[in-house]
Amino acid sequence: MGFxxxxxxxxxxxxxxxxxxxxxxxxxxxxxxxxxxxxxxPETMDLGWTDPCARRLAQxxxxxxxxxxxxxxxxxxxxxxxxGITERDGPRVFNSAVLINGDGEVLGVxxxxxxxxxxHACYDQGDRLGVYAADLxxxxxxxxxxxxxxxxxxxxxxxxxxxxxxLSPSAWAVPSDSDASHEPYGALWRDAYxxxxxxxSVWIAGVSNxxxxxxxxxxxxxxxxSSIVISADGDEVLTGPYGVSAEALLYVDVAPVARPARGADxxxxxxxx
Length: 273
Prior knowledge:
- This protein has helices at residues 17-33, 54-57, 65-77, 153-160, 187-200, 266-270, and strands at 3-9, 38-40, 80-89, 92-100, 106-111, 131-134, 137-141, 165-170, 173-174, 203-208, 210-212, 222-224, 228-230, 236-239, 248-254.
- The chain is α/β, with parallel strands linked by helices.
- The protein is globular and about 45 Å long.
């Protein structure tokens, strides 16, 4: 089944969850009005990546207002929402992605596996992968640098688990003096996404926020968007604008992929080429 995917390349302000959530709600509503069936939001869009408030303000998926508001927005507009959030589970805090269907039900939660060293003070280590059946297909979740594991092991594992589409909330940051005209951004992610997408006939979408990182070890760096979608043919079909102020709501039509019925031939069909 084909569908329209919206990537919310949104401004995220560190340490201001109310502002960020209100903004996300407006973007979800706009994307739904414009025909999106899935809305993808950036990594830790509630508090900002590695913001010092992470361990103090993180909320649970089950009862926290962050997830409750995203669930309400998904249900109100009848869209599937994938969002990066800061998740509390007892004494632990995770850099997580939550997947919510159009009925407002949480289909799954992924906790980031391949966190950068500078993120360890904020987030605990995830320890599992999963794919989740939705009306639009089987969806795999990863977060940002999960895509950069050796041999693309995380994204390839999601493909072996049956993913049709991989969604990746991200926060792509560069030094404040970076010059995209001399060092165009995005090759790192294209090189990680495209071979997997082509080998397994899956779509892979990564969305980054924009804005200045307000606190933490990378304070002052710029998140610059440049969100990317790679088709099941391995082609780059969408590239978001670059820049600290390059907020955008981006759309791509995800085409269905013809595959054999799942059975004896499935494993060989999914084998990387």
